[in-house]
Amino acid sequence: MTMIYHSKMIQEENFKNLCDLTTSLVGLRKGSLAYKSRKQEYQVPRSVAAVVARMVDDIHPNIIAKQLKRDRVSVYHYERTHQSNYSSFPKYRKTFNQVFNAYTHIQGSKRVFADLNHLKQHLRDHGVRNSDNHQTTIRISSGRVQNDVKVSYRDFYEQLEKCKLALVDCNYNLKIL
User: Which one of 10, 109, 156, 175 has the fewest beta carbons within 10 angstroms of its own beta carbon?
Assistant: First the structure.
């Protein structure tokens, strides 16, 4: 069985960061996208954050809905109305452009490893090691390279945390094999 680590934890972190970026850009309090308010000052950035998350990172609607304290149908509604809002609603368009440009700039500036040796050295520098007693594998993909870290069940969590810490400013995926 393959567990895709990226599909849950990293998507949750990315969407939380996107929400924080959105509130910062539009001058709202951190966490305010989850307010129950239907006021335009909250609704527009909430919708924009959901659409950007789906467009850029393909974040699962359940993750977006949970963070925004909405249901999954709301996320689908934001996606469905995006084109109409963008073409006819200047405030939405301005907010979308601002958030999309800032977020993609941040995502694009994250480090991607050009070759396997650099990735392996970076992981070693952060204490990521293969286990003598290999029982499972953490597969790290960044750019066009991937590296398998062979770990025991006993040191799995520690090595996974070291991998996440080492790759915090990198564009990467993790899979547990």
Answer: 109
Token pair listed for 59: 């974040």
**What are 6-34's pLDDT values in tens digits?**
457 778 888 999 999 999 999 999 999 99
Mean pLDDT of 116-141: 90
Contact (Cβ atoms closer than 8 angstroms) between residue 31 and residue 45: no
Q: Which amino acid is at 166?
A: A
How does strand 3-4 pair with strand 136-142?
unpaired
- CA distances (Å), 166 to each of 46, 69, 91, 120, in order? 31, 31, 39, 11
CA separation for the pair 166, 119 (Å, rounded) = 10
Contacts (Cβ under 8 Å, ≥6 apart) of 8: 63
The structure's pTM equals: 0.66
Query: Computed from CA positions of residues 167, 170, 173, 177, in that sequence, does the dihedral angle turn out positive or negative?
Result: negative
**In the numeric block, which tokens belong to residue 117?**
């040796």
Range 23-30, long-range pairs (CB < 8 A, 24+ positions)? 25/95, 25/98, 25/99, 25/102, 26/95, 26/98
Q: How far apart are CA 142 and CA 99, in angstroms?
A: 25
